[in-house]
Each structure stands twice: as structure tokens, then as C-alpha cells.
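[audit] Reproducing an earlier prediction to check determinism. Same input, same settings, fresh worker. If the C-alpha cells differ from the archived copy the diff job will pick it up downstream; this log only records the rerun itself.
[audit] input (395 residues):
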Amino acid sequence: MTMGEDGAAAERRSGSRCGALPVVGEVGRRRDSGQQRGEDGREEVEGEKYAGAAGIQAGELRVDAPKRVEDSREALEGDGIDAADIGVGEYVYVYACHEDERELCELELRTLLGAEPRGRYVGSPRRVDPSRSPFVKLRLGVWCEAGSLPELAERVAALRVEAASFKVSFAETDDTVLYAAQRAIERELGLRVRGRAEMHRPARRFAAAVLGGGRWVFGECRLAEPVWLRHQQKPQNYSTALGTRVARAVVNLAAPETAGARMVDPCCGMGTVLIEAMSMGIDIVGFDLNPLAVRGARVNLAHFGLPEGAVALADMRKLGGGYTALVLDMPYNLCSVLPEAEQMEMLAAARRLASRAVIVATVELGGAIERAGFRLAGRCMVRKGSFARHIYVGE
């Protein structure tokens, strides 16, 4: 599995990718005041109920609903584009994270996707499995775009999308679109898809989103599978070990390209990093000085059906071999600090073992990492209450 397959934006006969179009309006924007609940429990905006197909109120701005299916029959039966022939030149990744992990989340997304996060999404030409990141919720491959909902609906109809069963979802890229408006958008666009709507187990998933600059986009959607969440239930653990979400993000920082990666975790503890890397198909081995840690890591790997032989007893300072990437969670406990001389020995070993390294520490180590011969390519902090971890990417 490779990280990126840059796709060229396809020219469409119908002109579906039209570039910047005039913005017709905004959809159901939340306001600090004037928002109420109707008797049926649906939200009201500025005292006016959402009117279903008739339109979506947003203060003084209004987006009229697109024409109904019976009015778009010509588009469906005319010279449309077969969805199977659509090329995808842009992907939209919708993500979520806790404020304590925001720095790590944004650094990981920049590394994986090669683009800056905006609000709650990243637009990128790179096609990445959304399950790789513990923060990504879905990936939307953009098939068409427009400057308004009515225009987008017409272009979806022109695509002549077919599916035995399908579901259309609205991908939230910020907090401005009300729940009722989201469902209405899904219904209006779903009416332009040929097939049977299926909410629970659809054969295909599609999504729409509103991006910066008033861009409305539609395309095929793939949901992320929270693989890391299952890995929390391992039989052996340290109270101070990396959480599975942080460990998965750290692996992505170390090996954004999985093809050809050969990784090492020289202080692997109970194998949290090993499990996340192996679940992404990365070739990784682990070592530890502590026989109890090695035994625990092997138990955890076996629990998930992963090779126990990937872990061995060793001192990282005496390891040989060369690796493309290394993850080093510096040893520590709450009662003592690793001596500086020992820190430098471990960092020097890390520099010798791999061309790229992610180093995790509970103290500031930026200067020491540079003295060991690394160039700092990125850094962030992850907090949990008063406890903080420093994460460095060295090359």
C-alpha cells in the first residue's frame, strides 16, 4: 500500500469540474442567538423552520432547492458521464481530534497528505487509505463541484451514477450546517443517483461537502475503520505506554510511505508501536532490554495474530543493520530522569540505525537530537492532563 497516487484532474465533457463558481448562498448557518426548537424537535434558524425541498434558510441568505428528479429527467437521459469513467484529481479527508492531540493530528495529516488542514478537513491530490490515520473519519474522492447546491445536484444527475444500493452522506467540514439541512442535502442529491437507497449496508457510499470559498463537492466516499481502537484491548500493558491512537500517528510520521519501509522500534516495551505498524502492512522489528517487556510484547502480538518472532531481547546501543525508519519512545518513569549521557548514547544509536526517526520523550530533547546528527523536520506535543509528551521527527 502506497501513500500517494497523485491523480490528474479529469476533463469532463459536461464541464462538471468548473473551477471557481459564484456562490449562491450558505446553508443553515448556526447563530449564537435566534436558534430555537420547533414542536417537532427540529431546529429553527432566525425563527423560520427549515422548509424541506422548498429551500434552506440562513439568515438573509437563501439557497433554493434544486429541481426535483422529474424536472431533471433530461439530464439523466441525455449526454451524461458514466461514473465508472470519472477520474479523481482531489480527495477530501474529514478528520476529528481532541484538543490535547491537535498538534500531533495536524503534523500527521501534513506528513501523510502533503497539505495543510483547514477547519476539519484536508484537500489533497494524494489517495491514502483513510484507515491509516487515527484522526481521519472519511475520504471523499471529488467527482464534481459547483458553486451552489442546485448546480451540484444538476451535475450529479449528469454523471449518471448507478448503484444496486447506495447511501449519500453530508460530510461535515465545519459546524455551520444544521442537522435538518444536512439531511435535506442528502435527500436532494440522493434523488440524482440511480439505485435503491440503503442506510445501513449500502453497496456504495457517496458524500457531499461544502469547502472553503463556497465550493460544493460530491463523490464516492470511503469510511475509515478505527483499527487502532481494537488494539486497545491487548492482554499486556504498561500504565505509561503510548496510547494506540498516538502510536499509530507516530508510525505514520516515521513511515508516510509504507512501500519498501523497513522499520525498527529499539525500545518496544509491550509492542504498541509494532502492532500499529504491522496492521498497516509495514515491515517492522522490535527490541527491548527488559525480558518482561519482550515477553509481554510477544503475548500481545500473538493475541492479534501477528508474528511473535518480530521481537527480541537486545540493547539498542549494540544493534546493527540499517532501517528506513525508527520509532524511539525514550525510557522514563515518574520518579527518575534518564541521565544525559545515556540519552545521547541512545540518540547516537538511533542516528546510526535509521535515516528517519520519530523520537518521543517526556522532556525537551530538540537540542540533543540535533547534536546527535538529526535535522528536525517536525515537532509537536501531546498532552494528557498535566502530563506531556514531546514528539520529534528527525531526518
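[audit] rerun output stored. Observation attached for the diff report: The two ends are 23 Å apart (CA to CA).
[audit] end
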